[in-house]
Sequence to fold (241 residues):
Amino acid sequence: MTGALRGVVALDGPSGTGKTTVARKLAQRLGAGYLDTGAMYRMVTLAVLRAGVDPADAEAVARVADTADFGIGTSPDRPEIRLGADDVAADIRGPEVTKAVSPVSAVPHVRELLVARQRRIIDDVVGHRGGIVVEGRDIGTVVVPDSPLKVYLTASADVRASRRSTQDTAAGRKSSVADALASVERRDHLDSTRAASPLREADDAVHVDTSELSIDQVIVALSELASHRGILADCKEEVAR
Ligand code: DC
Fold:
């Protein structure tokens, strides 16, 4: 056991709430592993697009998911994101994948495959490292329903769109706040209305609205929550400070 965290922190919520940044920084602070489950759905989506398959063709999508060779790392410093031999960390954030990821992630077979793989990765990291921060849409409701700390991050749609647009611009992609707002609202609708494990807040999740909070304020709040739940070993006070 190398870090302070014992068990799984489940971090769910819609896009643009700061989940990825918060999850990575929290994992670093707690010496824990980190798993970006959205990246897994994005990699399958990239494999679908590269295979020339229509993302709306559920059977063909399921076949691609069965054979896609992708790797996902659990280091919060620089998680590996690989499809075949390629590092696809940048490709999976592009507009084509972002547009197609909702229909792909709504295919029940894709979810079964990825949830099973997520559970294996989580068990492995908890066994070796003690704890892991996992981010997604269904972590607290489906993937790890017995997680000792479930957090549901939200922010107003305007704030989320503005954050997404800033991220896209920083990554060299053309983006306006209006386009980002349309994309965020479209994805929220698709992700929360699909039949297979839709995005929803777990009954026992702690709701954190990040609209008015900096990333560091969110990290401090979550570290304190982890400390109060008694899931930090040894350095409890130090980590909570
Ligand atoms: O967090 P993200 O924006 O990278 O996620 C990409 C998409 O993947 C998102 O539109 C919904 C889907 N997703 C999901 O259905 N279940 C998860 N656990 C994580 C992501």
Notes: The mean pLDDT is 92. The chain is about 50% helix and 15% strand. The beta strands are 7-12, 33-36, 70-72, 81-83, 86-87, 131-136, 149-154, 206-209.
